[in-house]
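Researcher: Structure prediction, please.
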Amino acid sequence: IVEKGAVVRNAIIMHDCVIRENSVIENVVTDKDVIFGKGCQVGVSGENTPNRIYPKYLNTGISIFGKSARVPDNVTIGRNCVVFPLANDTHYTGTTVESGDSVGTDDM
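Model: Predicted structure follows.
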């Protein structure tokens, strides 16, 4: 589902995902059941900093989102980020995830 005013560019979005109104999602690959809150900006800005955990694989600007990950309203996520499966509101420390950072843990 892509709600009113949302924009999706250069992305692979699996089934049962939701992109809430006025979000911009760019250079993203998601697993299924990922929800982006209202007004999110993902992959639109930031340096092309390689991911700190997976620099060999995430260094071209693409961010990935694991199964059932959640992105709260008005969060900005840079490039080369990983949002691990089942990440939710409690895993975000603010409204910005810098390029190359990760949210959640790989043991979720």
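Model: The chain has a mean pLDDT of 96.
Researcher: Thanks, that helps.
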